[in-house]
Amino acid sequence: MSAPLPRWIDPYELVADRARLVGRVPAASMGRLAGLVEALPEAVSVDLAFGLDAERHCTVTGRVEATVVLLCQRCLRPFEAVLASEVSLALVRDEAAAPALPERYDPLVAAGRIALGDLVEDELILALPVVARHEVCEPPVPLAGEAVSPRRANPFAVLARLRREDGESS
Ligand SMILES: [Zn+2]
Q1: What would be one Pfam family of this protein (predicted)?
Q2: I need a labelling partner for 95 at 20 to 30 A (CA). Which of 36, 106, 146, 165 fits?
Q3: Domain ranges of the chain
Q4: Tens digit of pLDDT for each residue in 35-68?
């Protein structure tokens, strides 16, 4: 298991250092995400590189990933889902600068230090499926003591027997 990452980061400093953060961020403080899923893991895997692109944008790129428990909206049973986000952010000092960014970047508004957990949480929220559901739901298990419906006669078998009887009489 990799070392825990710092809670607070100065993204501009990390860009200047061409730093890469690889490790785990605790999920305990991710209240917004917690409200959107059934259960959170202890920590989120993070691999983020800070740098300057050819147009001198300060960028944060990489990946965040966590396995969460979601509630299937079709069968209402919980299931594990991997939330993974390919991160492609460019730093801006304020919202006003965001529209000028190339389309491949989402803005990361930061004037100075930011909480790493907030950045990671935002990315995971964006990675949530629009509608959570199993690819294929499991068939419901009958409850103990629940009456099992009696086997119905196969209508085709009945038909075949009638035809046979028909043939015998002619
Ligand atoms: Zn389901």
Answers
A1: YceD
A2: 36
A3: 8-139
A4: 999 999 999 999 999 999 999 999 999 999 999 9
Give the rounded percent of residues in the chain with a pLDDT score beyond 90: 77
Ligand 1 centre to CA of 76 (Å) is: 6
Ligand 1 center–CA 144 separation, angstroms:
21
> For 104, which DSSP code?
T
**15 CA distance to ligand 1 centroid (A)?**
43
Give the DSSP letter of residue 92. Answer: E
**CB–CB of 62/49 below 8 Å?**
yes
Residue with tokens 């419901």: 140
The CA distances from residue 44 to 3, 32, 84, 102, 120, in Å, are 12, 15, 10, 28, 8
> How far, in Å, is the centroid of ligand 1 from the Cα of 35?
20
